[in-house]
Amino acid sequence: MAAIGAIRKHYGLLVIIIGLALLAFVLGDLFRSTNRRQTNNIAVVNGEKITYQDHANRADVNIENAKRNGSVSNEDTYSVRNQTLDQMIREVIMNNEYEALGITVSSDELFDQFVGENPNQYVKQSFSDANGNFDKEAVMEYLRNFQSLDPVYQAKWIEFENAIKEERVNEKYENLLKKSFYLPTKLAERYYSNKNDKRTAEVYAVRYTTIPDSTVVVTDQDNKAFYEANKKKYQTDAIRGIDYIVFEVKPSQADRQAAMDYVADAKQGLAETANVANYVASNSDMPYDSTWKADKDLPVEIEGVIAENEAGHVFGPYESNGYFNIGKIVAKENRSDSLMASHILIAYQGAVRSQATRTKEQASALADSLLNVAKKAKDFEALASQFSDDPSAKTNNGDLGWFTDGMMVTDFNEFVQDNTVGTVGMVETPFGFHIIKVTGKNEAREVARLAIVAREISASTTTYQDVFSQANKFSTEVRNAEQFNKAVEEQGLNKRTFQTIRENTYRITGLTNPREIVRWAFKDETKVGDISTIFDLEDMYVIAMLTKAVPEGNTPMADVVDRYAYMIKKDKKGDMLMEKAKAYGTDYEKMINEMNGEKSTVENITFESRGFGTYGLEEKAQGTALGMKQGVYSELVKGGNAIFVMKVTGEQPAAATTDYSAIKREKQSVFNNAILNGAAYSALYDNAKIENNGILFF
To answer: pTM for this structure?
Structure first.
């Protein structure tokens, strides 16, 4: 009560203190945050904003398109979002360029891309018949009916139209750049000379390999000198490095036992049920598979179960591929696994994928008539080509070739399976009436239809809680790098390292969907030595420590020195050999004899040579030889792999010519290829002012 009285006594002061504390908290967060952290724009390109919502709308469409081609993982989703942002940035940059140059595509020109004399290649592909002939009328019909189309198809058409327009305007831009190529004759003469003027030189060289690495002492001053001379070559994106601990959630022994007990308890029900499909659907973690299987198709754990048992036999439990299972042989037969047939499809209005206008009764009557003819006909393929409603019959004459058992619709498949080669008959399927001729089948084998009840061996809630407790204990006890490393050592944990995280990184060794860790590492308030909270990833908990924060710009000296230590050592060897060689003056024979050097002749030295004799790429030696007078010794040259002294002993000038067309074609080709490979966009991108905030959103 005394404490409550004291609080009441100082109530006014407490209000002021709390108010100031809240204000400090808000202002501190405000000043700690940058404009980038408060933005709703996923990017700003040359002052033009790309909003998060615009990007999300575009990315969602692209993700849905990707899903139509197969499953899409979290990594795939991130990749699509990132590619979408790159695409939108490119559009802003290129549209600004097109506008500045006055490049447009008019409505008439766009229309001509669809129905003109020379339509766009993608339009041709989309509106061509089975023989590859472009159907202009089909395009016109589509355009006339545009307003009555489903909104989904309208949106797809607009997307298609925009793509055609973008391709056309880019084609104009590239053509404009290609036409801008100009090579003056004087410059062509220089290129011709550089390529064809040749020199021969007498070369005295001492290779760096003559000095053992163990005898070379590289000092801090050497490292610093190399870094200062070369740091502009080694630019880097912003990079973060982390150490991290993974607490994996794996099924415990109790979880394994629970999964096995589950299927064991279901064994009697599977044995007694009259409807195995429903029983499996209600009790299994895997769907019912009605396909016929041979012993060779089964997991090794139950191999032989078909040959050794009859229909009705129940087997298991057994473990396979992360599941405990029980099974039942539902049926056994001798069946061919490869079948071959030809058919004539008579479709009717309302059948699956049918465009026929005849009624079902009319189709049935026609099929009956054709069946009688087909049974007597010697040329089944001719009938298929003439009467079949299967579009492929125009090219394959109804021959479906070989197919696996179960591949065709059930009634069709079973007719071929149950009849001998040469049999002609008819079945009805959802596609219409099929007149079928069995044309081939391999030897039958013993197969069975199995019902499998599977239970995944997965971690329980209790297991997740136990692993989280381990991670939480580590997290609460660790506050800095020293404590982090000490706890790792004391607890025998496996500390992992990943030192090249960029803002667009979406793969970190051993982690699933680590984007939250990447975003944490790049937060303004995350400093080297900071320890993260617990990241809840798929089947694991992760705690990370930031170990490196490299800003965009010059690569840090330590990284350059570490990566290029061999080059620094070679450079040091060069200095050592140059200093030693000076003592011999111009007695180069003595120099190479006493320094384990060599004398050789290097021929065909040109400005475009890709090597210097047996010494590899030696640009300084090559340039020296091409720039000196004949018969005169050069100064000592410190190369990339050796030190050199040279004397030009021969010259072979290029043959006189006034025809530089080959040179111009060569340079034009190089120029055009650079344009096709995106050199223009790369230059525009490098000079654009881009604020990319993608890491804040995905």
So the answer is: 0.69
